[in-house]
TrEMBL record:
<protein>
    <submittedName>
        <fullName>Multidrug ABC transporter ATP-binding protein</fullName>
    </submittedName>
</protein>
<keyword id="KW-1278">Translocase</keyword>
<dbReference type="GO" id="GO:0043215">
    <property type="term" value="P:daunorubicin transport"/>
</dbReference>
<feature type="domain" description="ABC transporter">
    <location>
        <begin position="4"/>
        <end position="235"/>
    </location>
</feature>
<dbReference type="InterPro" id="IPR017871">
    <property type="entry name" value="ABC_transporter-like_CS"/>
</dbReference>
<keyword id="KW-0472">Membrane</keyword>
<dbReference type="GO" id="GO:1900753">
    <property type="term" value="P:doxorubicin transport"/>
</dbReference>
<keyword id="KW-0067">ATP-binding</keyword>
<keyword id="KW-0547">Nucleotide-binding</keyword>
<keyword id="KW-1003">Cell membrane</keyword>
<dbReference type="GO" id="GO:0016887">
    <property type="term" value="F:ATP hydrolysis activity"/>
</dbReference>
<dbReference type="GO" id="GO:0005886">
    <property type="term" value="C:plasma membrane"/>
</dbReference>
<keyword id="KW-0813">Transport</keyword>
<dbReference type="InterPro" id="IPR027417">
    <property type="entry name" value="P-loop_NTPase"/>
</dbReference>
<dbReference type="InterPro" id="IPR005894">
    <property type="entry name" value="DrrA"/>
</dbReference>
<comment type="similarity">
    <text>Belongs to the ABC transporter superfamily. Drug exporter-1 (DrugE1) (TC 3.A.1.105) family.</text>
</comment>
<dbReference type="InterPro" id="IPR003593">
    <property type="entry name" value="AAA+_ATPase"/>
</dbReference>
Length: 253
């Protein structure tokens, strides 16, 4: 069963085609990554799937719901961890989770136990009463993940989940993501610039370039196909090694 089904998806920003007739599916319980250069269309695709943008054409189903016609149902089925932190720094970690739980209408009798469980999952129990403004970058990211799981979504979107974190913290976040995916059976779709991250976490990757998906396969198969041990080599084979002048595109994609 597919957790996500994308068919002939197109997105224009004025005269710029950001997404160019892409199709792919993500199975329930899979960890799937969208990879691509800056401005390739990764975040635009993620924003469409999470109902933050409306597609120009084509169709996308998330947990069986149409992202254009059934936005509320999609939003109840997904969790999102944005690239930019969206926490209230003047609240404690626990208060951030409580507020998010109330936004989803989770009953107090359920809410308290769920928050306790999530804080344990991301190892923030001892920092639950600490103001988020005093959290490290890694702690904030872990709290973001907990917040995205408060309503027990079927699908979790992660946009650059370890961007700007040190190597040790990145690996810790990887372990949380792997546990969520394999032990909690949460379908995960992530974007990342770190090839080793996609290689470690994902069952399949799709490389998107200039709005088109150029390949969709498992990391192992792609490395074998191109006779390399490095997913970076695979990425360059499909996208080239030229730094492109895409500053204006980056602003809207």
């Amino acid at each position: 069963m597919a957790a996500i089904e994308v068919t002939n998806l197109v997105k224009y920003f004025k005269n710029t085609k950001a997404i160019d007739d892409i199709s792919f599916s993500v199975g329930a319980g899979e960890c799937f990554s969208l990879l691509g250069p800056n401005g390739a269309g990764k975040t635009t695709t993620l924003n469409i799937l999470s109902t933050l943008l409306k597609p120009t054409a084509g169709k996308a189903l998330v947990a069986g719901f149409d992202v254009a016609k059934q936005k509320n149902e999609v939003r109840q089925s997904i969790g999102i961890v944005f690239q930019e932190p969206a926490l209230d720094s003047k609240l404690t970690g626990k208060e951030n989770l409580e507020f998010h739980a109330m936004m989803y209408g989770i009953k107090p009798s359920i809410r308290d136990e769920r928050i306790k469980s999530l804080l344990q999952l991301v190892e923030l129990t001892e920092k639950a009463e600490t103001l988020v403004q005093n959290y490290s970058g890694g702690m904030k990211r872990r709290l973001e993940i907990a917040r995205g799981l408060i309503h027990r979504p079927k699908v979790l979107f992660l946009d650059e989940p370890t961007l700007g974190l040190d190597s040790q913290t990145r690996r810790l976040i990887w372990d949380y993501i792997k546990k969520l995916n394999k032990e909690n059976d949460v379908t995960i779709i992530l974007t990342t610039h770190y090839m080793e991250e996609a290689d470690f976490l994902c069952d399949r990757i799709a490389i998107i370039d200039r709005g088109k998906i150029v390949v969709n396969d498992s990391p192992a198969n792609l490395k074998k196909l191109h006779n390399t041990n490095s997913l970076d080599d695979v990425f360059i084979k499909y996208t080239g090694n030229t730094i492109r002048n895409i500053e204006e595109r980056e602003k809207i994609w």
